[in-house]
Amino acid sequence: MDFTDKRVLITGGSRGIGQACAIAFARGGAKVAVNYRSNAAAAEATLGGLAGSGHVALRADVSDPVEVESLVAAAVEALGGLDILVNNAGIWVEHKLEEVDYDGWREAWRRVLEVNLVGPANVCYCAARHMIGAGGGRIVNVSSRGSFRGEPDGPAYGASKAGLNAMSQSLAKRLAPHGITVGVVAPGFVDTDMAARYRESPMWADIMSQSPYGRVARPEEVAAAVLFLASDGAEFSTGTIIDVNGASYLRT
Ligand code: NAP
């Protein structure tokens, strides 16, 4: 897919799905700002593997509204503008209701909603305000199958992603008159560090059997859907949620 001269900011672009997006956008000719929270070495390694030039690594915690504002400003300055935002950074925190105490329960909800929902909302705000002035853009938010199927071990995660879906669809309507599209990609299990806690567990075989393909997704397969929603031709797909779960969960 051709992204020549497009300027892309990817939150959590240093590892996993975000890294796969960075690689694919750069291969398509884009200039990429790779955001990360703490692992600078991973961000630099990702940057070093990108095709083309003009890419940059930017540290910021998306749950911090001040850092978000600086992140978007730094991306605009480093790339010379911003055409595409991929809100990909996210965390998983286990908090089974019968097992955590009340403090642990409240802390899980606070942290997960801050990183997975309020943070992306703030990145959308800052990026869209720039895009409005620039005449348009593309926003793609990375959600999860758990937003539809439920997350009994981490209900705040499921709720954060359901909220992200709803926010994206609201913004798709709000921003269409400004030439800005907002789409969502909702993966099932993807073979990244986030899923690593299950890889060595007895649950892994069961997880793989959830899809008739007998495997989980590769990060590049999620990136392919992200790139479609970020492409010039995806205007009328705004508000869409694309499932990338190997038919492991079919919603109607
Ligand atoms: P991952 O491998 O754990 O990578 C997470 C990335 O997000 C890293 O670049 C990390 O940077 C960054 N990050 C984490 N917290 C951040 C914060 N507060 N501010 C800025 N960056 C932050 O994750 P992944 O599996 O690729 O997941 C990416 C997205 O896909 C997430 O939104 C996740 O919920 C969603 N998803 C994943 C799966 C799955 O099975 N893997 C399934 C469905 C949906 P540092 O390394 O510097 O901390």
Describe the protein:
There is one protein chain. By secondary structure, the protein is of the alpha/beta class. It is 46% helix and 14% strand. Strands 3-2-1-4-5-6-7 form a seven-stranded parallel β-sheet, with helices on both faces. The chain is globular and about 50 Å long. The chain starts with 6 loop residues before the first strand and ends in an 8-residue tail after the last strand. The protein binds NADP nicotinamide-adenine-dinucleotide phosphate.
Share of residues in strands: 5-15%
Strands, count: 7
- Name the structural class: alpha/beta
Give the strand line-up of the largest sheet.
3-2-1-4-5-6-7
Q: Element order, helices and strands?
A: EHEHEHEHEHHEHHHE
Average of pLDDT:
97
Number of helices: 9
CATH superfamily: NAD(P)-binding Rossmann-like Domain
Architecture (CATH level 2) name: 3-Layer(aba) Sandwich
Which bin fits the share of residues in helices?
A: 40-55%
What binds here, in terms of ligands, is: NADP nicotinamide-adenine-dinucleotide phosphate
* CATH topology-level fold name: Rossmann fold
Shape verdict: globular
CATH class: Alpha Beta
Please give the oligomerization state of what you see: single chain
**What is the number of domains?**
1
Q: Low-confidence runs (pLDDT<50, min 5 residues)?
A: none
Helices and strands in order:
Elements: E1 7-10, H1 16-27, E2 31-36, H2 40-48, E3 56-59, H3 65-79, E4 84-87, H4 102-134, E5 137-142, H5 146-149, H6 155-175, E6 180-187, H7 196-199, H8 203-209, H9 219-230, E7 241-244
Parallel strand pairs: 1-2, 1-4, 2-3, 4-5, 5-6, 6-7
The structure holds NADP nicotinamide-adenine-dinucleotide phosphate.
Residues 11-12, 14-18, 35-39, 42, 61-63, 88-91, 115, 142, 144, 187, 189-190, 192-195 line the site of NADP nicotinamide-adenine-dinucleotide phosphate.
